[in-house]
Backbone:
């Protein structure tokens, strides 16, 4: 479908033509008609699918058809400064031929920028593009009147919730008129997103487009290595590669700094991007990268979503991402707009389980590349995967036959009875056995085969529980430890993960 097939204003079509937009992407084709009708929308689409234009174009079109007033008319929320800047830049290009005003509101800049943001909102700019933290700051200082807001858009909503902005979003919503259009874009659809949608959206339409699958043009590879081999490996890859642009992602700011310094010593044109840097420095790094002054960026996940840079040839995951969604967003920086690219992941021994789960999620085995000879051998790749559709605890099946052959149970009967798995051969500590069942030290060969018909249908532990006896001591100890832990906290569950937000993103 072409953009000129929709009922856009002529001046907006001029901007679309200047941006060289021709054929719509799937998310644009499905989402834009809904937004143009003024309905609430929740759209699930991965990064790189053209979702920014999917809400900007119909938003601008609606604003052009209504008389302007001296209040803010639309708010676009973004999780990071970089994404807010990118939305602002794309809005500037699309609206070049129309009379729409906008301001980007985010932290990390000087006092003059704060004053500019304040005056723009007080004077009633049409569109505010903001990070939650900085917008909350202006609200507390009574710098903005949002009583005239007609459109509220959340981009990368799942990322905002991951960063702890749920309460801030709700606080902002309370400042808005009840009668408004709310549009939410998210790369994933976890329970917390559904909860937020139920809270702030009214009878929304739902659009779901190709979520959680990497682009076809990405060649995915992995190196199974020790942690100590990573630094030399990334140096080898960059020294032997003629790619123009590369992003190296790490989950640790310290790793970002260490790798950046190592590449500097190799005389590679490299920049670093993490939340410890001032906004002016981050802006300069991005400008140098886009202009070609530097061709490698070492970054935290601050760059994994929403940053649209053309021509990225290779993405290296120095650390395995926390989950499959983060993996997809990282490698999604390359092979954009139907181009080709390479996504490489370093998998150390401690990250094998995580990477195995990513492969399971993608339903494919990622090619394992041999390490350079000078690095020596890496560890064997042996991830322990959680079976789909099963409880993580291996419960006893009371209807299964008990098999006392320990080796057979572990090696040849993994899908059957799990009762003997990891059980010591000497089982006297479990109490007396029922008749016909062998103890591990009663003079019999533990590895000898036992006729099936002579075995009971239930294990000793299961029978003991049915007879009213207590569970084995290790379960009671676990329960006692848990109760003591609760008592030590005065009956309250400890608060885990309640860390303060990183103000650098807002």
Residues:
């Amino acid at each position: 479908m072409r953009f000129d097939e929709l009922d856009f204003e002529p001046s907006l079509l001029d901007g679309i033509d200047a941006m060289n937009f021709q054929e719509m992407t799937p998310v644009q084709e499905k989402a834009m008609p809904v937004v143009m009708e003024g309905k609430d929308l929740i759209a699930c689409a991965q990064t790189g699918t053209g979702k920014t234009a999917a809400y900007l174009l119909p938003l601008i079109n609606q604003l052009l058809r209504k008389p302007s007033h001296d209040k803010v008319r639309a708010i676009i929320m973004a999780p990071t400064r970089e994404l807010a800047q990118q939305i602002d830049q794309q809005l500037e290009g699309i609206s070049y031929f129309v009379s729409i005003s906008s301001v980007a509101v985010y932290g990390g800049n000087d006092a003059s920028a704060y004053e500019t943001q304040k005056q723009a909102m007080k004077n009633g700019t049409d569109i505010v593009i903001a990070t939650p933290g900085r917008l909350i700051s202006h609200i507390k200082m009574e710098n903005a009147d949002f009583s005239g807001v007609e459109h509220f858009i959340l981009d990368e909503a799942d990322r905002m919730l991951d960063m702890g902005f749920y309460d801030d979003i709700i606080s902002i919503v309370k400042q808005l008129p009840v009668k408004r259009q709310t549009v939410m874009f998210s790369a994933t659809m976890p329970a917390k997103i559904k909860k937020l949608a139920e809270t702030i959206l009214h009878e929304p339409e739902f659009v779901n487009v190709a979520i959680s699958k990497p682009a076809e043009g990405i060649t995915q590879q992995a190196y199974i290595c020790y942690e100590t081999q990573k630094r030399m490996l990334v140096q080898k890859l960059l020294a032997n590669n003629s790619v123009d642009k590369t992003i190296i992602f790490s989950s640790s700011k310290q790793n970002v700094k260490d790798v950046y310094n190592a590449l500097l010593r190799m005389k590679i044109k490299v920049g670093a991007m993490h939340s410890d840097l001032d906004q002016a420095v981050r802006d300069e790094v991005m400008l140098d990268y886009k202009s070609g002054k530097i061709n490698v960026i070492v970054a935290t996940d601050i760059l994994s979503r929403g940053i649209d840079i053309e021509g990225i040839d290779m993405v290296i995951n120095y650390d395995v991402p926390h989950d499959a969604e983060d993996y997809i967003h990282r490698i999604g920086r390359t092979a954009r707009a139907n181009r080709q690219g390479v996504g490489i992941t370093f998998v150390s021994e401690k990250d094998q389980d995580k990477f195995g789960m990513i492969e399971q999620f993608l339903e494919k085995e990622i090619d394992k590349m041999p390490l350079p000879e000078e690095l020596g051998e890496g560890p064997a790749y042996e991830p322990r995967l959680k079976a789909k559709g099963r409880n993580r605890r291996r419960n006893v099946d009371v209807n299964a036959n008990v098999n006392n052959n320990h080796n057979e149970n572990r090696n040849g009967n993994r899908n059957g009875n799990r009762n003997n798995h990891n059980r010591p051969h000497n089982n006297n500590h479990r109490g007396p056995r029922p008749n016909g069942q062998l103890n591990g030290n009663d003079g019999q060969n533990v590895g000898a085969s036992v006729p099936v018909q002579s075995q009971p249908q239930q294990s000793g532990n299961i029978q003991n529980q049915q007879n009213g006896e207590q569970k084995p001591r290790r379960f009671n100890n676990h329960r006692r430890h848990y109760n003591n832990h609760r008592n030590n906290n005065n009956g309250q569950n400890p608060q885990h993960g309640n860390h303060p937000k990183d103000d650098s993103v807002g």
In short: DSSP finds 17 helices and 14 strands in the chain. The radius of gyration is 29 Å. The longest helix spans residues 473-488.
